[in-house]
Amino acid sequence: MTIYPSFNKNIEESIRKHWSLPSMSDYGRQTFQYSDIAEEIAKLHILFANTGIKKGDKIAICSRNMSRWGVAFLATLTYGAVAVPILHEFHPEQVHHIVNHSESRILFVGDLVWKKLDAKEVPDLEGIVQLNDWTLLSAKNKKLKDTVENLNRCFGEKYPASFGQKDLAYHADEPEELAIINYTSGTTSNSKGVMIPYRAIVGNMMCAGELIGNNAKAGDTLLSMLPLAHTLGMSFEFLFEFVWGIHVHFLTSKLTPSILLKALADIRPIALVCVPLIIEKVVRKAVMQKISDPKIKLLLKTPIIGRKIKDKICQGIRNAFGGNFYEVVIGGAAMNQEVEALLHDIGFNFTVGYGATECAPLISCEDWKDFVLGSCGKTVKRMEVKIDSRNPYEIPGEILVRGQNVMLGYYKNPEATAETLRNGWYHTGDLGIIDRHGNIFIKGRIKNMLLSGNGQNIYPEEIEDKLNNLPFVQECVVVQREGKLYGLVYPDPELVKKQNISRKELADKMEENRKFLNTQLPAYEQLAGIILRDEEFEKTPKRSIKRFLYS
Q: Half-sphere exposure of 285 toward its Cβ, with a 13 Å CA cutoff?
């Protein structure tokens, strides 16, 4: 029988060990020490108890990243309730649906999110509490109302002498116990409530420790850029750091390039976890435009001068991200192959991981020193991967996963659970191959795969990767219509404006792109046309295009 460490015991021990260290900061604003976090958790435990919240009851949290998001989340789990993190970028109708579907009793909400919501649409909620300052926004439970209005007094009555490490006594969690219901962001369909047990949270914390922990220590700093309501941000930019004693800074305002670069320079994080979009924007704007000059291209080919130029480029990118990190962990979406090859060539310390909400999220990753270009690393410890293919080394098949990180199933959705969890394996819906060293290579999604007229499998993501590298293309989706392939393209607005390109000229440029692209593709993958779009594609909060809207 496998024995898993206790999540709440890890939280309790970390608070005791790092009592006087800074734990979380809202960048440029308030900082909470571990002792402050413990006190805030204790106050929320009083609120839960007085309201009649029982073990296993659902508590929803919907807000931009902030320290009190972390407090509400930790208070929920250490009490024994189930956390329902909701992405703040979901439409109000989605938020209302998730609160109702999850049967949440209390909703913690950020001030900006609250402006868009309607309390009448969540009739079973007993109370809505504003995260910024614990003020009550709506209440049907009188005890909840009384407790929130007198929370400091209630705290003083429970701990009349003082509150300290001796007062920490958190819920004793079990490995298979439900901890989180995390609703997916839905790239191929509507969101489903993924039931994440405590063992999966602990498994991901252990993975993060094995990936980053040997190069981090208590008191180091990290900048949180991904939504905490997404499992990648939650596991790798919050929970691991909290247990390790790392000081997490949350960007509470809108993420703009100027704010991000200033924060990175100020905080100088020990590691970076980000989606490809952030890295690709920096590389395309700051590097690729400069090295496209024929003279620079020629110099790059010379052994000594070329190496010096690459080292200088690499250091420039490192400095832009704070200059103090061990490695950049990239995940959440496919990375552009040209950008990835450039970063690898200049020696930039990055690695690409692979995961799914259903695995909270990690499935594979590798230290940057051992990372194989084009892969997403090797299967992490305590997990198994197999490719459902007669030749997994050469013929793509569905990626199947089992192990500590895998979910319990989908909340109130036995049909989807039975379809996804079969014979002990989680069926990811992703296609891939694996090399003889265990490195996994993603080829695309089964639902995205297209079939040519002569029966050839077409992976649109591979065509899109090439199309995205061509002039004036900001983002694209390849679709099949009446047996022919078309590229839907949203052009780069900055470049179009800068070069004062007319719509007709832009269409001509795209036709040139199409002809050039087709020279690099087999006949069954060639595009019959490119269709220009005036608006960006609709995306999930992790910046993946919602493909099902355009298929």
A: 12
